[in-house]
Amino acid sequence: xxxxxxxxxxLSGAALAREKLAxxxxxxxxxxxxxxxxxxxxxxxxxxxxxxxxxLGRAIADLLAARGWxxxxxxxxxxxxxxxxxxxxxxxxTKPESFEDGEVIVSAxxxxxxxxxxxxxxxxxxxxxxxxxxGTVKRVKVRGPRLGPKPRGGLRVTGSKGPGDxxx
Length: 168
Known about the structure:
By secondary structure, this protein is mostly helical. The protein has helices at residues 2-7, 14-31, 56-67, 70-80, 82-86, 88-93, 111-119, 121-132, 163-167, and strands at 94-100, 103-108, 139-143.
């Protein structure tokens, strides 16, 4: 046996570990203790019966899934966190109005901010899809400030309107 050990190359590191593991498996097989072919299952804790109380978060998630409210709840979450998603500057001048068929309608408080959001539409779609899941938002539609009907009253000038009124 000494001659065999002297002839064998000296192993180190991973090769030594593999050899020792192979020897241990061979010894176990000789004793009739074969290693497991399947990995052990981890205990997930005590099993719950159907009548046991559930964790609140899990109960809400199950309810949303059962009613098909997952996407509307996620959209509501995004609308509620609008400021942290788009940043405080943009959020101060815009607000999300609705989401339907992959389209988010955003209202802006001025035409300048409406133009800014239109320029950022592709970035906004990407950012919203990061929050809601890829492909959820397909486009962003922007509405400028809402100017209602012009008030009528005694102080209004009637007649033709246009450049002639201003320049004389």
